[in-house]
Amino acid sequence: MIGDTETIDEFLARHAGDVEEAVRKAAAAEIMPRFRRLAAHEVDQKAGPHDLVTDADRNAELYLTEALAALLPGSVVVGEEAVHANPASYEAIQSDVPVWIVDPVDGTRQFVHGDDGFCTLVALARHGVVHASWTYAPARDQLATAVRGGGAFLGGERLFAGPPAPGRDLTVATSHPYYTTDDQKHALLGLRTDGIAPRACGSAGLEYLAIARGELDATAFSWEAAWDHAAGLLLVEEAGGAHLTVSGEPFRITGGNTLPFTAARDAATARRVTGLLSGTRP
Question: Which of 152, 219, 263, 267 could disulfide-link 242, Cβ–Cβ 3.0 to 4.6 Å?
Fold first, then answer.
């Protein structure tokens, strides 16, 4: 148990590989056997036709909940599907104990449609600070990891986002209109301008990975669910990128953010995007 005798850094030094193994095993046991083989009874709706959940989501989260809690006694797990069943469990993100933040299948819509653009997201946080993250795209055999202060890596190679090339349009992945309020839709219209090429986002976790790899310039997201953002935001940070809300503050996984917010390849791009979102155009 993490406390006076062990820090999170010490835990990660000993067990980061065990977490990776748990993530891979969850995908191998519960997700990939159902990929492109889902039966109708294995797919349900949560809040409507654009909010899907499958047996792969539920079973992979149960697998990870058991495995991660066993690796770190005294920790708690905040998973997307458990919070859907019991919204009050989300409050554990605010607690003093280590928290595993889990999205078993990020990009469920893609998964259901047989697209390989989905991933499993795991982050380890405490006191609202993300210390480590794992982003695993099993259908693409890609695993990205990040440790605060220790860098971001994909397949063992260090990731550097780097600034966008000057003189070309910035590609920005944005929230789907189904998940935005009228005010947020208005803010996102600020990206409909010269020099910006907005497009709808796919899996949030894979969009963050694309930023860390220097393949996507920025995001503009309008929701706060920590399981979608915690892992990817640390990955972007450790690759040299930045994140900002329209109030000019970094995004907080504990909530209370002014939305929309951006993650970007560098701080200058983050300021440019939030300026457009807020109408100040830096």
Answer: 267
On whether residue 165 sits in a domain, the answer given is: no
Q: Are 262 and 190 in contact (CB under 8 A)?
A: no
- Between CA 25 and CA 224 the distance in angstroms is 28
- 70 shares a domain with 117: yes
Verify that 151 and 17 share a domain, yes or no: yes
Residue 147 belongs to domain spanning: 8-158
The tens digit of pLDDT for each residue in 66-110 reads 999 999 999 999 999 999 999 999 999 998 999 999 999 999 999
What pTM does this model have?
0.95
Neighbour count for residue 226 (Cβ, 10 Å): 27
Nearest of 78, 91, 109, 273 to residue 201 by alpha carbon: 109
Do the beta carbons of residue 173 and residue 273 sit within 8 Å?
Answer: no
Separation in Å, CA 152 to CA 22, 85, 105, 117, 118: 19, 33, 21, 20, 19
Higher-confidence residue: 50 or 168? 168
Residue 281, Cβ density class (10 Å: 0-12 exposed, 13-18 middle, ≥19 buried): exposed
Does some domain include residue 1?
A: no
Residue 104 to residues 48, 108, 186, 280: CA-CA distances in angstroms?
19, 9, 32, 37
Secondary structure E strands in the chain: 43-48, 51-54, 76-79, 99-106, 119-126, 129-137, 142-147, 151-154, 157-158, 170-174, 196-200, 218-220, 242-245, 261-264
Residue at 227 is within a domain: yes
Total number of domains in the chain: 2
